[in-house]
Specification:
Length: 364
């Protein structure tokens, strides 16, 4: 995602053997920045053309106070031993890696927690490198809340911490006297990816919302494909235990009882409840029975076909029914034959996504 620093081409001009070093300490996120190269173009020899100012480009995106001396940076690493996570610990769990159990803890905090504002200034810089179209949030708005994952490990008999990932959430108002939390940014750092941390983070956030009566339901802001996959897995696993999502009920179609129970018990909004229904109905469908398969296919295609049956004045309403990629399929000049081919393609792609969710559910 370096285009968010260096432009769409992601090119840095004017250097040979370039190496950009941006280091963070594991706990305090003390930052070190250095630029190395074997040679650099000279404006005197190249008609006044200058090499890109790498240090300036990065320095504009990270908080001041970063180090430029590697020796000084290394000397500060010992201070990580005094670091304590911010806020309230909500959950702890273990992950087995390479035959060893590793301990992780999830904390909830806000910007008023002493020291967290400065810590978040360093933490949020990761989104520019790992989340496309990311931007910094306005932390002066007290409706923001933060959930952080730390690995806890022992060094010389003392507990130490390393940041593994985090999530930001905004409490939107919901008429008349409730709130609708919206998940904004979710990032698991690369060394910790594909270990189940995002699912643990999401489950912990959900359970925190369950105990808050003012929460109406939960939404997510422009979820990435990877995050949506984790969200589908967690929501499907939870809904599987609800009476309204039992196989016999699923085969009868999407119902108001599903919407009600998913919202009341799990804070799942209507659109996500429909998606979970489709995933679990695929599980309940006996694929050896043609009528059940046909009924499922028609049910899905009926929803996918909705944009083609509406005019432009209903476009905003459809945003509450379809995912962005599905909504983009709305074309005013599409022929009937093209529409059928497109629906077939959308159906097959969606079912493939759902099968991956079911495979993970079976393995969990």
């Amino acid at each position: 995602m370096s285009h968010q620093i260096f432009g769409e081409s992601e090119n840095i001009f004017g250097y040979k053997d370039l190496r950009v070093e941006l280091y963070y300490s594991a706990a305090k996120l003390t930052t070190y920045l250095n630029v190395k190269y074997s040679s650099k173009i000279s404006p005197e020899k190249f008609d006044g053309i200058y090499a890109d100012d790498i240090r300036k480009a990065i320095a504009e995106k990270i908080p001041p106070g970063f180090m430029t001396s590697l020796d000084d940076f290394i000397a500060t690493l010992a201070k990580d031993a005094t670091f304590k996570p911010f806020g309230e610990m909500l959950h702890s769990y273990k992950v087995e890696r390479d035959g060893k159990d590793r301990q992780f803890e999830i904390y909830k905090t806000n910007i008023d927690e002493p020291g967290f504002r400065e810590y978040h200034e360093r933490l949020q810089t990761f989104v520019l490198w790992y989340i496309d179209a990311a931007s910094y949030i306005d932390v002066d708005d007290d409706k923001w809340q933060f959930y952080l994952i730390f690995e806890k490990y022992i060094t010389n008999g003392n507990p130490m911490y390393a940041i593994a990932g985090y999530m930001t959430m905004y409490n939107y108002y919901a008429y008349p006297d409730q709130i609708r939390p919206r998940i904004s940014q979710v990032l698991i750092l690369p060394p910790f990816q594909k270990q189940g941390h995002c699912a643990q983070l999401l489950e912990t956030f959900y359970k925190d919302c369950y105990r808050r009566p003012e929460v109406l339901d939960i939404t997510a802001e422009d979820p990435s494909e990877n995050f949506q996959r984790v969200r589908d897995f967690v929501d499907a696993k939870n809904c599987f235990l609800l009476p309204s999502f039992k196989p016999e009920a699923l085969l009868r179609g999407f119902s108001q009882q599903m919407i009600y129970e998913a919202q009341q018990k799990l804070k799942i909004n209507k659109r996500q409840a429909r998606r979970v229904y489709e995933i679990l109905r695929l599980y309940a469908t006996d694929e050896s029975k043609p009528e059940e398969v046909r009924s499922y296919r028609l049910d899905l295609k009926k929803r996918l076909n909705q944009p083609f049956q509406k005019n432009s004045r209903d476009y905003q309403k459809l945003q509450h029914v379809l995912a962005p990629d599905e909504l983009s399929a709305t074309l005013s000049n599409i022929t009937g034959e093209e529409r059928m081919k497109l629906l077939d393609q959308m159906y097959e792609e969606l079912v493939e996504q759902y099968r991956r969710i079911l495979e993970r559910l079976a393995a969990s």
